Amino acid sequence: MVRVVILGSGASLPTLYRQCAAVAVQYEGDVYLFDCGEGTQLQWRRAGLRFGRLRGIFISHLHGDHLNGLVGLLQTLSLNDRSDSLRLYGPPGIADYWAALGRYQGVRLGYPLEIVEAAPGLLLDATSHRIEAARLDHGPPTLGFALVESDKPGRFDVDLATALGVQPGPLFGRLQNGETVRLDNGQVVVPDQVLGPTRAGRRVAYCVDTRPCRAAVDLASNATVLVCDSTFGSELTEEANARGHCTAAQAAQMAAEANAQRLVLTHVSARYHDARPLLAEATAVFAESSMGRDLMEIVL
Amino acid sequence: MVRVVILGSGASLPTLYRQCAAVAVQYEGDVYLFDCGEGTQLQWRRAGLRFGRLRGIFISHLHGDHLNGLVGLLQTLSLNDRSDSLRLYGPPGIADYWAALGRYQGVRLGYPLEIVEAAPGLLLDATSHRIEAARLDHGPPTLGFALVESDKPGRFDVDLATALGVQPGPLFGRLQNGETVRLDNGQVVVPDQVLGPTRAGRRVAYCVDTRPCRAAVDLASNATVLVCDSTFGSELTEEANARGHCTAAQAAQMAAEANAQRLVLTHVSARYHDARPLLAEATAVFAESSMGRDLMEIVL
User: Fold this and answer.
1) For residue A20, which residues of chain B lie inside 8 Å, CB to CB?
2) Contact flag B42-A14 (C-beta cutoff 8 Å)
3) Which of A194, A218, A263, B103 could bridge A289 with an S-S bond, Cβ 3.0-4.6 Å?
4) Structural domain tally of chain B?
5) pLDDT per residue over B4-44, tens digit each?
6) How far apart are alpha carbons A86 and B281 in whole angstroms?
7) Per-residue pLDDT averaged across B77-101, rounded?
8) What is the value of ipTM here, to two decimals?
9) B243 with B175, same domain?
């Protein structure tokens, strides 16, 4: 199962309905956290997520609305008796930030925290899936992230294999695993003869905060879902871009260019008590747009 | 009006029902914040408090559960177009902490923030009321705080003044203000002749986190209400004191020694899903005990 849970869909000013940036992405039993605004640990509880499942935290940039929940969450994991090491990925400066908190707040954790100041590219490879980063266009060094499921082999055609003389049993498994096999009669069967086309893995891209940019489009290329910065409506396009953000329509344009299957708008400014106009502007450009909201779940 | 609003009644591990430490104390139009755990700004909104009323923030110590909401709150005040300067009081180290956040997070505020590394004694004097600090016994340097209303003159006895020959008018006001007056017939009337006994001002004491200690009892002396560390029940007395905290019964003992009128238990460990046993232990020692809960209001 791949599941995306929007923990905070708000921008720099949190409200009771849109808390600060945080998105949990679950791949089977592993959960990854993209950004950790203030209050993330309670949103995590509200969403029914389990702290023990957390495998990595990825911070896009060091602005408070993406970061201020980090210390509390890390301390809570410790108070919950975590002993497994945890990787924390973020832009340059995150190690110094953590060291300063240790110095002034006396933070002590009961598990190893490995801090990775991340560069664009492959960050984590878990065989069945991986996490990649791209450099976005926000202002301070900012990373976008994508959870990418590994491609799966095509479907095995039992009838075709039987017709070619392959006996059910170990040979079926070897062909499914991509091995060429030789039958008792000397005939050779290659996987392509009995497997359908390779099936592309699912892809969840998280591009927050950013102006419209090529790197975000590439990160979201053919994504199953793109969760994207959508701070303002079109009436504030200039301000959005001056501040390093997208409008809803620009997020939709990126989703279209990326050939994404679905767009979820997030990082919505507190000024929009009613965010339907933003959704309408996005949908006009890219039909499969949804308005993100706190605790929304998307199961892929 | 003096009003106490418990914004967070929990300890180091916040739950959905007990968030991290924060208490708002309102004196007429001025609101003071004692501690600022993660999520305080949203609790402030939930309580219906207005950001524009905030006159000072007082941090007891630099542990995360008393501090992690500070950056977000200060940024939110800025996004709300605050221009009035704000005083932030805390223990030694709070200025360096803030400087480090500025360095790594790029925090910029649109109003002057004056940081005061506070010593025990008088911190703020607003004529009608003042705020005092005491050094508690927790471990790291930790301050307790008390909002103290100035004593008020005794009630003016109109009948007595008239009998003494004082004509209603300006002389009444001067006597009420503590001035001696001379009547047309040459007779002198001093305020003590027409005023009742001085009325003691109200006092709200906040002693979190602390072991039982003399300084907390003194700070809470004759308090209208004492809001006190009550992390554990009596079954964990040793652990409570080893970690620099009080049990509910110890908080009650301090309230009794201080001759406080009322005790509110707070900083309750997440392990107590049902905190009634703690309240029972406190009430057995000090009858006027209440269990603090998030968004509880006490109007004095």
Assistant:
1) 72
2) yes
3) A263
4) 2
5) 999 999 999 999 999 999 999 999 999 999 999 999 999 99
6) 40
7) 96
8) 0.91
9) no
